[in-house]
Amino acid sequence: MKGIKIEVEEIEGICPVFEEGDKIIIEGASLNLEQTDAYCVWASSSWMPYILAIRSGVPAHEIGLSYETDTYYVQCLDPGKPYTPGGTVVFKIERLLD
Q1: CA distance 24 to 12
Q2: Pairs from 54-63 (Cβ < 8 Å, separation ≥ 24)
Q3: Cis ω before 82 (30° cut-off from 0)
Q4: Which of the residues 15, 19, 24, 80 could staple to 6 if both were Cys, CB 3.0 to 4.6 A apart?
Q5: Backbone region of residue 26 per phi and psi (left: phi > 0; alpha: psi in -120 to 50; beta: other values)
């Protein structure tokens, strides 16, 4: 089963859910709760549209998510200050191969 690792790469401002280095592990259609540090429903909307493409091995540079091939980057939708009291999070996404 192919999995996906989503890691918090950078936080600008304040995020009430994540800390840098937190990981989310997706295996198939399931969230691996034992290996997942934190999860935010709102932030998940930033990576969900790409999960099938990433799992299928579509190169990151072909879908505009990185200059690299196997590492994808997306950003939380919270714009942070001065628009909200929160912050924004950059997520690094990688495929986990069997």
Answers
A1: 19
A2: 54/4, 54/93, 54/95, 55/2, 55/4, 55/95, 57/95
A3: yes
A4: 24
A5: beta
**What secondary structure, in 3-state letters, does the chain show?**
CCEEEEEEEEEECCCCCCCCCCEEEEECCEECCCCCCCCCHHHHHHHHHHHHHHHHCCCHHHHCCCCCCCEEEEECCCCCCCCCCCCEEEEEEEEECC
Verdict on whether the full-model pTM lies above 0.90: yes
Token pair in block for residue 30: 């399931």
